[in-house]
C-alpha cells in the first residue's frame, strides 16, 4: 500500500509496509496512484510528454524492484499475552484544584470519592510493577490525577522507595508527572528537575481560550497562575524533557494560534491535542469541523518550519514523528499496551487497564493491597492489537497510530476494535505534515 | 532520479514479534502527550549504553 499526498505545496509518497518516504512530482503521484495495473484514463497524463511519463514510470518501477515501493505486507504473528507489565499510571489524587469543562475524569474525581492515594498503596503498586516486569529493565511510573501535586508527599516518598529498589532488582525507573501547574512551589520544581524524566504542564493557549474551560472549583480562570508557574518551571528546567500540553475544542478551532501563542510566551516543547467528548457536548469536535482543523495543522506546519530557523525554534509533539527508524514492528502493532503492559492504579488500590478506565467497575483487574489480579481483562486487551482491527489494517497510517486509543474505542464506538474516526482524520493530517516537515528540513 | 527523491527508505524494523519491550510506553489517548508510536525511538542502543555504564 502506498499513500500519496500533497502537503505544504509538495507531493509525497509513503510506502506503508516498508516505511519508505519519497518526495515526488505531480506526474509521479499520478503514476503511483494508478499503479498497478497501469490502466489510467486516457486524459490522465495528457499534459505530459510520452518521454516524461516513460521516465517517471521507470523510476517507480525501479523502486518497486528494490522492494521499497509497494512493499508487500508481511505475515504478522497473532497477538499474545505474556503477563509482563512495564508501565504504571499512579492516580495519586482523585482530587483536583481545577474543574476543567472537558475533563474525562469528572473534575479529577473519576466519579468516585475525592481522595488521595496513601503511601502504602503506592508502595504496593511499585512492588507489583517490579514483580510483574520480568526481565524488563526500563520501568515507567507516571504520576497522574486529578492533580498529583495535591499529594506531593506521597509522590516524593514513592520515588524514593522505587529508587531504593532499582539496584536490587536491576531496574531503571523513569518517572513522569502531569500537572495543571495551578500551584507549583519551587521545591516541587526542584524535585521534578532531580527525579522526573518528563514533566507535562497543561495550558490551552491564549488566556481567553484557557480560562473558558480551565477554571478553579469556584469558577475563576486559572490562566494567570498557570502561565506564571509554568514560565518559572521552564526557566529552571534547562534541557530536560518537558511539554506544555494544551487541548483544543470546538470553541478554538484556530488552535494553531494557541500553539504559536505558547511559543511566543517562551515555551519550546509544545503539544496541542483535540478534545475527545460525546458529540452532544458543546466543546466536542465533530465531522463538520475536520476540514477547518486539518487546515490549521498545515498553517501551523508552515510557521513551524520558519520559526525553527530562528530563536523561536520549538518542537510540536505531533510533528516529531521519527521516519528514519522509530519503534520496531512489535511496538507498532501493540501501541500503548493498555490493559497488559501498561496499567493504572487508583487511590483505592484498584487496578485498571489504563487511567481512562479508572472508576469503571467493569474494568477492575484487581487491587494492589489485596494482591488480587484477574488476568481476564489483561488477556482480552492483549488479544486486541492492530491486526485485529479490520478498518485499521486497511489504513495507511496504521504503523504510526497503532490502532488508536482503546478507551476512546470503548467509550465512543462501543468496541475496542473499532477506531474513533475523528481522531483518525486528525492523526492522518498530522502524520502528513510531519513527513513533509522532515523532508523539507532535510533532517532525517 | 529526476522525478523521485528518496527521503527515507525501509525504516520499519520487522522483528517478527521479538521486540525487547524496553521502549517508552506510548499513551494512545490524547491526555498524556505520547499518543503516537511513530515518534517513539527504539531503546536498544540506550539500553546497551546503560549496561556499559553500569559495568
Q: Output the helix-strand order of chain A.
A: EEEHHEHEHEHEHHEHEHEHEEEEHHHHH
Give the low-confidence spans of chain A: none
- Whole-number mean pLDDT of chain B: 69
Strand content of the residues of chain A, in percent?
15-25%
Shape of chain A: globular
Count the beta strands of chain A: 14
Strand content of chain B: 5-15%
- How big is the Rg of chain B? 16 Å
- Overall outline of chain B: flat
- Spatial ordering of strands, largest sheet of chain A: 10-9-8-7-6-5-4-11-12-13-14
The class by helix and strand makeup of chain A works out as: alpha/beta
From N to C, what is the helix and strand string of chain B? EH
Low-confidence stretches of chain B: 47-55
Distance between the termini of chain B: 48 Å
Detailed description of the structure:
The complex is a heterodimer of chains A (444) and B (55). By secondary structure, chain A is of the alpha/beta class. Helix content of chain A is 38%, strand content 16%. Chain A contains 15 helices and 14 strands. Chain A has helices spanning 26-33, 50-65, 119-132, 152-169, 186-195, 207-213, 223-237, 255-265, 290-307, 329-334, 376-382, 390-393, 398-401, 406-413, 421-441, and strands at 2-7, 10-15, 21-24, 87-91, 138-144, 172-179, 196-202, 242-248, 269-274, 315-316, 342-345, 350-352, 366-367, 372-373. In chain B, 44% of the residues are buried. Mean pLDDT of chain B is 69; it is low at 47-55. Chains A and B meet through strand 3, helix 2, strand 5, strand 6 and strand 8 of A and strand 1 of B. Strand 3 of chain A pairs antiparallel with strand 1 (4-8) of chain B, so a sheet runs across the interface.
Note the main attributes of this structure:
heterodimer; A: 444 residues; alpha/beta; 11-stranded mixed beta sheet; 3-stranded antiparallel beta sheet; 14 strands; 16% strand; globular; B: 55 residues; alpha+beta; 1 helix; 9% strand; flat; disordered C terminus
